Amino acid sequence: MRVLVIEDDPNLSRQLASALDSAGYVVESATDGEQGHFLGDTSDFDAVVLDLGLPGMNGIDVLRKWRDAGRSMPVLILTARDLWSDKVAGIDAGADDYLAKPFHMAELLARVRALIRRSAGRADPVLVSGAIRFDTRSGTTTRDGVPVILTTFEQRLLQFLMHRTGHIVGRSEIIEHIYAQDFDRDSNTVEVFVRRLRLKLGSDSIETVRGQGYRMPQGDGSPPTGAGRDTTGTG
Ligand code: CA
């Protein structure tokens, strides 16, 4: 999952990036409104943390321009303490949640998790696909109740797929959401990680939908209807 952080305070920006990175997100950072607006306008993010007081273009204007252009990613705004008018303006401009500075990083992470879950239409912090459960709070995975140890990239891929259970996810979409912008994005590595996840989670855990991408079964594991099912694990 990719998170965009737009914050001009270098210390806070670093802390946010580090905390989100440790929580398993791919983080892109911007330090002014113009650059932040551009990133959010031209590439897909699963959530945005947006400071309101920014040089260049202020946070309210950044948010309003995105919403006017139909960009609907969840946005958490950071406001100065006690400035209730900022919260109102931010929510009116299309913010999904807000947090007043100073805040506890654990609370920010919890709010970002909840925003991403809700935007994927999932209320429960534990995502379920067949025998597999992924706890978004702890980042832990189990199969039939038994813990499964995943590497960072395996976990990023699984988390992304599990937020979209029942839907087909294309390879380019996966690459966009599990790698940072400046990372060497070799699409073959997606296949490698899918293969590894199948080894750890079971060959039927991730379906290949020929020519389109991958899909994890929704809920208790009854396979979604549709053509092109291929669980041989070849692709
Ligand atoms: Ca600021």
Describe this structure in words.
By secondary structure, the chain is an alpha/beta fold. It has 2 domains: 2-119, Rossmann fold (3-Layer(aba) Sandwich); 126-215, Winged helix-like DNA-binding domain superfamily/Winged helix DNA-binding domain (Arc Repressor Mutant, subunit A, Orthogonal Bundle), CATH 1.10.10. 38% of the residues lie in helices and 20% in strands. The protein contains 8 helices and 12 strands. The protein has helices at 10-22, 33-42, 59-68, 84-92, 105-119, 152-162, 171-178, 188-201, and strands spanning 2-6, 26-30, 47-51, 75-79, 97-100, 126-129, 132-135, 140-143, 146-148, 207-209, 213-215, 229-230. The strands form 3 sheets. It has a 5-stranded parallel beta sheet, with helices on both faces. Helix 6 (152-162) crosses helix 8. The longest helix is centred in the middle third of the chain and has 15 residues, at 105-119. Bound molecules: calcium ion.
